[in-house]
Amino acid sequence: MSTVVAAKSRNRHQTYMAKAGEVQRKWLLVDATDRPLGRLAVRLATVLQGKHRPTWTPHVDTGDFVVVTNLAKVKLTGNKRETDTHTKWTEYPGGLRSITQGQLMAKSPETVLRLAVRRMLPKGRMGKAMLKKLKMYRGADHPHAAQLPAKAEL
Asked: 84-91 — which CB contacts under 8 Å span 24+ positions?
């Protein structure tokens, strides 16, 4: 009889582990107007991973979908527009290309935020799946109205 009681008390304190089919994903709408790029990227990476939930599990993607609007109005603090550079290599000799943060923001603000968030997510298949849940748009219009995203102040 005492072994049955001991077994019941042991099961009561087990850690909850989410399963892939059980995750209830929400849609969140974030307005990026006058938000610092780095602080916005940190909050987006946290929500995409699901670390804002009490049911976060390391080996399961428990994050939500995030729609970011007004991306062209993201703020870069300090001299980052002129001093920060993004470099890429074309894999040819002499193929190192660099562009300043300000030039890249004018050309493609989606790329700037995607790179900032991607570097904060886990590397590998799960990180790529998390990044696919991030939807970004330069203006206030977006095609995800049918999902009824809740406005979020991240």
From this structure: 86/112, 86/115
